[in-house]
Amino acid sequence: MTQEPEGDDGTLAVPTPQRRTSKLGIVGAGAVGSTMAYAALMRGAARTVALLDVNRQKVEAEVLDLSHGIQFMSMAEVVGSDDVSVLADCDVVVFTAGAKQRPGQSRLDLAEATISLVRKVLPGIVEVAPNAVYVMVTNPVDVVTYASLQISGLPPAQLFGSGTVLDSSRLRYLIARHTGVAVQNVHAYVAGEHGDSELPLWSSASIGAVPLLEWPGVGGHGPLTSEVREAIAHEVVESAYRIIEGKGATNYAIALAGSRIIEAVLKDEQRILPVSSLLDGYLGISDVCLSVPTVVGASGVAERLEVPMSSDELLGLRRSAEAVRTVARRFGF
What we know:
- Its EC number is 1.1.1.27.
- One of its GO terms (molecular function) is L-lactate dehydrogenase (NAD+) activity.
- Belongs to the LDH/MDH superfamily. LDH family.
- The protein is α/β, with parallel strands linked by helices and about 325 residues long.
- It has 2 domains: about 25-160, Rossmann fold, CATH 3.40.50.720; about 165-330, Lactate dehydrogenase/glycoside hydrolase, family 4, C-terminal (L-2-Hydroxyisocaproate Dehydrogenase, Chain A, domain 2, Alpha-Beta Complex), CATH 3.90.110.
- It is built from 8 helices and 16 strands.
- It has helices at about 30-40, 55-65, 110-130, 140-150, 165-180, 225-245, 250-265, 310-330, and strands at about 25, 50, 75-80, 90-95, 135, 160, 185, 190, 200, 205, 210, 270-275, 275-280, 285-290, 295, 300-305.
- The chain has a 6-stranded parallel β-sheet, with helices on both faces. Strands 7-10-11 form a 3-stranded antiparallel β-sheet, covered by helices on one side. A 3-stranded antiparallel β-sheet has the order 12-15-16.
- The N and C termini lie far apart (about 65 Å).
């Protein structure tokens, strides 16, 4: 028989209430937001998932549909509302709401409508969840992240963008497909803007322990020549546009990428991810949000790693910074 614990005076001690393990907030219950909730639940990333959307009927339907599948996932609670209070005391808030990208439309073309939405919604969320780590996913994510920092007043470590986490996953997939090795053995990053000016960091990439630029080709698969690398880089940028043209939105891969970022924060993993954050003297680049390999943990972003770059890569990163900075200035940031 288990004996109840006693206090110093011999009386039964009152158990200290345990804090809930984690609460994830998702702003926007559209294709990306609802899939993000599904991915996070499937991975057991959070004990509570809270959805916020202006369309009350839509968000309540998504909550009900997700809740009906909890039996087949790690135990969790799903809640949702059109009232910002549903996000109270979140540990992580992922912002997916924004204007929908149309076929042929660049991410930067989305900036005006999305920034207007952020200006309207974000301050109220920060008021009810002041200690949350904020992850901006809405495109154009680099400009939106920079604007969100100005609008919210949050520290640069506490708010950052999903950046090129998805682009890096696309890059690794394409390299793996060409070389015939498992994608998990490919280590490569896309840096810069999450968009047309982004660039793969070939000089620091590797396959297993072999530098990518020295990969000889195995099992009938050829080496990664400059022509192959150029084609892969082009496909990384263009693939999102092809998906949007074919089905209207990208949602599965970005949801998985987002859930990976969420776990890095909630589990304090100190994981290196190419997220978009405010740079300050990074290889001579400042006052712009760009993706570079960054340590991510419970406090948000920490060190930005100064990975080796060729002169062309460094020039490309600076050009990407200028492209993003120009758009941010156009909207008064």
